[in-house]
C-alpha cells in the first residue's frame, strides 16, 4: 500500500550543525508511527521538515507517491498534513471558536460560525475534548489548549496525517491515558499519526512502528508485528551505553545541613496573572537540605507559588521567611544573594535570551565573570564552562549554539545546568524532567540527590507522582486554592496523594 507521506534521504543543516542526515521515513493511513531518541537527536527538526516549517537541505518528499517540488505549511495542510507543536499556535485573547475559525479561514475555507460552533461541540463530545467554544484561550489550562490545537486539525476536512510533538509533556498524569486512547481512536478512523515522545511506556502502549534517531541519523525502525521491548528501545536510543538507573536517597551531613537555607511560609495568599486569588492561607516549613515536592493538577498555583518564593510575584498577605529573616517584601536580587535559584516551567519565556548563545546565557547567571583588559574574556569563560561536571553529565550542547534554535529538551538541560553551577543554597525546580529523555532524567535526579548531600534544599514541582515519591522527602499538595500537607513519603501512598490532587479537602472524607 502506498504511504500517504514518504521522505527520502532528508537532510537538514544549520550552518555547520547537521540536525538530520539522510533520513528515510513514511506514514500510512491507520497507523501510529512513534519517533524516539534522546534530546537533540533531531526528532522535532525532522517533523518540522515534514510539515514544511523547515526546508530540507537535501532529500525529497512524496505525497501519495508524487514528488513535491515545493513544500511549506500551506501546501502541507492542502495535502492533509496537520501538526500540533510543543509551543501552541493560539491567540490567547480569542475564544476557542475564534481560534479555530482563524485557522480554517487562513487555510481558505469559508466558514459559518454557527455551524462551526456545532461542529466543535460534536467533535469535542466524540473525542472527549473538554473545551467550550466560547471560552477565551487564556482561561484554559495547557491540556485544554492542546485540545484546541487538535480541534483545528480535526475540523479541517483535508486532514489525513497528524504530527504530535511531545504531546504528553503538558499533560497531568491522569490526562495521559485519555490522550493515548484518543490517539487510538484517530488511528481507527484512518488517520496516520506521527508521535514524538521520550516516554517508552507510551510507545509500548500505542505505537505500530517506532523509528529511533540518534545524533540526527536513523538508527532503526521496529515493527509491532515483529515485537519490541523496552530494553531494545533504550539500547537503540543510547547506543548500547550501559547506564545504571538505580537511585538511592542520600543523607546530608550535619555540617552541610547547618549551612543550608531554611524556608517557611505563614498564611501566604497569592494572585494569578488575571488578579484572581489562586492560593489562600498557605503555610508550611521546609526542612534544611530536604527535597520538598509540590504536587497538583496543572493550574492549581504551582507557577505562582514558585514565583512568589523567588520574588517574581508579590504576596497578597502572609510572611515568607528564610533562616528566620522576613523576606516577604525583598526583590529577586536579594533572594539570589541568599542563594535561591530557579528553573522555570517555560525556559524560553522566563530563563533565556533566545538570541544569545549558550555561553552568553550561562554568563548572565551561573558562570563567574572573567575579564581581560576590561572586557569579558570569552575564551576563558568557555574553558570555565567546560570544567563544570554538570555540563558533561547533562550533555549540554556546544557553547556556541544559539538558545532560540535549541529543542525544548536541550533548553531544559541548559537552564538546569546553569542553576546548578551557580552554587545554589535553595533550588526551585519546576518540572525539571519535562521533555527529557530517560538518561537525562536520571542525570537530573542524580544531580538533585548530590545537591541534597551537599546541603542544598530543592522545591521540586511535578505532576508525576512516581517522580515525587522517588525524589522527595515530603510532598505538599496544591488543590482547591490552598495547600495540604506536607506529607512524608514514607507515611503515605501515591493513591492518597493523587486523591488529594483531585479532590482537595474532600479526599479525607
TrEMBL record:
The keyword Oxidoreductase does not apply. It comes from the Bacteria. SMART domains: AAA. InterPro entries: AAA+_ATPase, ABC_carbohydrate_import_ATPase, ABC_transporter-like_ATP-bd, ABC_transporter-like_CS, P-loop_NTPase. Keywords: ATP-binding, Nucleotide-binding. SUPFAM superfamilies: P-loop containing nucleoside triphosphate hydrolases. GO terms for molecular function: ATP binding; ATP hydrolysis activity. CDD domains: ABC_Carb_Monos_I, ABC_Carb_Monos_II. Residues 5-240, 263-505 form the ABC transporter domain. PANTHER family: CARBOHYDRATE TRANSPORT ATP-BINDING PROTEIN MG119-RELATED (PTHR43790), GUANOSINE IMPORT ATP-BINDING PROTEIN NUPO (PTHR43790:SF4). This is ABC transporter. It comes from Vescimonas coprocola.
Amino acid at each position: 500500500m502506498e504511504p500517504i507521506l514518504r521522505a527520502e534521504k532528508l537532510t537538514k543543516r544549520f550552518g555547520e550543525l547537521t540536525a538530520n542526515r539522510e533520513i528515510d521515513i513514511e506514514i500510512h493511513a491507520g497507523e501510529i508511527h512513534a519517533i524516539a531518541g534522546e534530546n537533540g537527536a533531531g526528532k522535532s527538526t525532522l517533523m518540522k521538515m515534514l510539515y514544511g516549517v523547515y526546508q530540507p537541505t537535501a532529500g525529497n518528499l512524496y505525497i501519495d507517491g508524487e514528488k513535491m517540488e515545493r513544500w511549506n505549511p500551506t501546501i502541507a495542510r492542502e495535502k492533509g498534513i496537520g501538526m500540533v507543536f510543543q509551543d501552541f499556535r493560539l491567540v490567547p485573547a480569542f475564544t476557542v471558536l475564534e481560534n479555530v475559525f482563524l485557522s480554517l479561514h487562513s487555510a481558505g475555507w469559508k466558514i459559518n460560525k454557527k455551524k462551526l460552533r456545532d461542529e466543535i461541540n460534536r467533535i469535542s463530545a466524540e473525542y472527549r475534548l473538554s473545551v467550550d467554544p466560547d471560552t477565551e484561550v487564556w482561561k484554559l489550562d495547557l491540556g485544554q489548549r492542546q485540545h484546541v490545537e487538535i480541534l483545528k486539525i480535526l475540523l479541517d476536512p483535508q486532514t489525513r496525517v497528524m504530527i504530535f510533538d511531545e504531546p504528553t509533556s503538558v499533560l497531568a498524569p491522569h490526562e495521559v491515558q485519555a490522550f493515548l486512547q484518543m490517539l487510538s481512536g484517530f488511528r481507527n478512523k484512518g488517520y496516520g499519526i506521527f508521535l514524538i515522545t521520550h516516554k517508552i511506556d507510551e510507545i509500548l502502549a500505542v505505537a505500530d512502528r517506532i523509528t529511533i534517531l540518534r545524533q540526527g541519523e536513523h538508527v532503526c525502525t521496529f515493527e509491532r508485528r515483529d515485537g519490541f521491548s523496552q530494553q531494545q528501545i533504550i539500547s537503540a536510543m543510547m547506543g548500547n551505553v550501559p547506564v545504571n538507573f538505580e537511585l538511592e536517597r542520600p543523607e546530608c551531613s550535619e555540617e552541610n545541613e547547618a549551612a543550608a537555607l531554611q524556608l517557611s511560609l505563614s498564611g501566604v495568599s497569592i494572585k494569578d496573572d488575571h488578579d484572581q486569588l489562586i492560593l489562600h492561607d498557605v503555610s508550611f516549613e521546609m526542612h534544611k537540605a530536604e527535597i520538598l515536592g509540590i504536587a497538583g493538577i496543572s493550574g492549581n498555583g504551582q507557577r505562582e507559588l514558585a514565583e512568589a518564593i523567588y520574588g517574581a510575584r508579590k504576596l497578597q498577605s502572609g510572611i515568607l521567611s528564610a533562616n528566620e529573616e522576613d523576606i516577604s517584601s525583598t526583590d529577586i536580587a536579594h533572594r539570589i544573594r541568599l542563594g535561591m535559584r530557579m528553573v522555570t516551567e517555560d525556559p524560553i519565556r522566563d530563563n533565556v535570551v533566545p538570541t544569545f548563545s549558550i555561553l552568553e546565557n550561562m554568563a548572565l547567571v551561573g558562570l563567574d565573570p572573567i575579564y581581560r583588559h576590561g572586557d569579558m574574556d570569552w575564551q576563558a569563560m568557555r574553558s570555565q564552562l567546560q570544567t563544570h561536571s554538570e555540563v558533561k553529565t547533562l550533555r549540554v550542547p556546544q557553547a556556541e549554539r544559539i538558545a532560540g534554535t535549541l529543542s525544548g529538551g536541550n533548553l531544559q538541560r541548559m537552564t538546569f545546568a546553569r542553576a546548578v553551577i551557580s552554587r545554589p543554597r535553595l533550588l526551585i525546580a519546576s518540572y525539571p524532567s519535562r521533555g527529557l529523555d530517560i538518561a537525562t532524567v536520571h542525570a537530573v535526579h542524580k544531580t538533585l540527590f548530590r545537591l541534597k548531600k551537599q546541603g542544598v534544599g530543592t522545591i521540586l514541582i511535578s505532576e508525576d507522582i512516581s517522580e515525587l515519591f522517588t525524589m522527595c522527602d515530603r510532598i505538599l499538595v496544591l488543590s482547591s486554592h490552598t495547600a495540604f500537607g506536607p506529607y512524608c513519603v514514607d507515611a503515605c501512598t501515591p493513591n492518597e496523594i493523587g486523591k488529594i490532587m483531585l479532590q482537595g479537602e474532600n479526599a479525607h472524607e
